[in-house]
Amino acid sequence: MFDALQGWLSGYIFDWLAILITLLVQAIVVIMPLMLAVAYLTLAERKVIGFMQIRMGPNRVGTLGLLQPIADALKLMNKEIILPSQSNLYLFILAPTLAIAPAIAAWAVIPFNADGVVVSDINAGVLYVLAVSSIGVYGIIISGWASNSKYAFLGAMRASAQKISYEIAMGFALVTVLMVADSMNLTEIVNAQKGGMLNWLWVPLLPMFVVYFISGLAETNRAPFDVAEGESEIVAGFHVEYSGMAFAVFFLAEYAMMILISFMTAIMFMGGWLSPFEGIPLLEDMFAWVSGFIWLVLKVSFLLFLFLWFRATFPRYRYDQVMRLGWKVLIPVTIVWVFVVMIMEYFKFGPWFN
Amino acid sequence: MTFLEVIFYLLASIAIISGLMMISIKNPVQAALWLVLGFIATAGIWITAQAEFLGLVLILVYVGALMVLFLFVVMMLDVNITQIKERFTAYLPLGILTSIAIFAIMYMVIGPDRYGVDQMPVPKSMPADFSNTKLLAIPLYTEHAYAFVLAAVLLLVGIVAAITLTLRRRAPSVVLYQDIDKQVKVQRNDRFKIIKMDAVVEEDVKPIDEDEEGKK
Amino acid sequence: MLAFLKHQFKTFTLLELLKGMVITGKYFLKKKITVRYPEEKTPISPRFRGHHALRRYEGGEERCIACKLCEAVCPANAITIEFEQRDDGSRRTTQYDIDMFKCIYCGFCEESCPTDAIVETRVFEYEFHERGPSIMTKDKLLDFGDKHESQIAEDRAVDAKYR
Hints:
Strand content of chain C: 5-15%
Structural class of chain C: alpha+beta
Number of strands of chain C: 5
Helix content of chain A: 55-70%
Largest interface: A-B, 33 and 31 residues
Oligomer: heterotrimer
Largest sheet of chain A: none
Number of helices of chain C: 6
Distance between the termini of chain C: 65 Å
Number of helices of chain A: 13
Order of helices and strands of chain A: HHHHHHHHHHHHH
Structural class of chain A: mainly alpha
Shape of chain C: elongated
Radius of gyration of chain C: 26 Å
């Protein structure tokens, strides 16, 4: 579809301009629904946490509070962006941009359905997602430093140390996926999981699935790993000096990363857009009409619900406990499991290596 | 000019400008950030040259981990800039000389004589699903396995050395340590006891006799 | 050894975390107890300490005798009282101001009042947008008392045996 657009455009204008416009259109097609999803994820979070605390959650703006995110956005847009004195203004303004850019850029390689519904189907997709999301640290670290505030600085230090620690466990968890799926292309990883729910990678790699999701929680600085913004200790962490839309951009980045992590988990461990009833005689026909995209969205919604469920359930870790969990528990577990998978792969052990 | 050329010149100019800014800017934190930008631009150039694995690893390792640690150190240290800049002009001639020497050596080693356009043919344009990760991995794990293992051992020694250097336990009277393993293992019964006891019922408060004032 | 294995089992199966999630999961499905305020209201105690009021005797004479006990006891110094002696020798206030911005609704004025003149009512839905109207003068307080007298009397009667 986009190739056709590019071909049609290049009949009228320069080739490079045609490519640029096509890329922009592709980006908008991905970003607009993403931003909408982020907006409604904030509402879902407040609703779910409210329900778990036997409250209602927001229910005043629109029916069931459905217009709440829009009201919030309007409020934030109208607020003044306060520039703290003695802060580094260029970096202060740059930091939110640096936070949200990687969170959006990573979506370029996420496949949404079979038949290559993806902006760019590159063969090192997993590595690309890892690399781009690792740039997200800079938004946090720069915001902390440029704010000229000790709370922001401490929050930034905590957040970035936590992020780069958990990236290692995350990377190891992905290595096992690559070993089993035999590819770094996200579409091929999904295709390698064909053949019913038990062929999805969460079965052979259950510990890695758990480790990846826990690392994902820590990567996005979500509860119970939200020491970076521990309200009781350091006010709000790295974005304490930000207000109005600058704060909203950090917020968007955090939630976009949450959705991204959920998508990655769904694609790599839960069979992406594959139907869970594949291979089951009656159910497969009954649900044949459901598009792969809907299955993917359902899986992602479940994972996002887990994010919110965790937040409503667990108290915050202490900072040294977070570091201990990352370095002394998750990394050894992943290293051991890499070797286990290696041996299983070598001896063709188990029904999934055929 | 093709689209790829536009991208190349954009990334190349970013890389050069950020390199110059990195060595000329006064604030060490900003210098580190310019270096990060230089890394990203370089990684972009590598990806346009079909070395996407190397480019992404450059971002992952250098930008994502190494420079963050570097920034940590620079931010924490509170470097006194004026002190560093004091002898700047005195060292300038020596610095220029050194940089010219390094540039000359680099020109001789990787100059057009060895890696020029006429020496190196234009790389074949590979199909989109071509994986150069595999292409890199095969010689690394077969031909150069020995060197690869040696490098890994060297890194391990480095990790061990760094940990032993920083790991020093002081007397408990000086520094209090928390043993998280112990803390995690604590059970409910270690901390408090639930005791069964009879409920104490308070006596009802007797209403005051209503006199004239109480009745209002 | 057994304890060690038990601990490891518990750690790696994340049993305790799952238990916690089961609890929040149960609450997720429970009936919500939120009271939707403007439409629904929670029951209010007769001892509720809301808006102040000055009361009158049944004959119409104001109860306050300007003893200034409330002014003395007020921890926030919110009450200002001036008085005069009437021709019949009784002592009455000329000014009785409560600064509602200062007031912390502790109810001490009500406790200290020997004639039950100053009371705090159940009314809590009121607001001020600027500084002037926030000072409740004697007239306003008396009017307020007249308006809510039936409710005030009822509340005092319920609470009388405990005072």
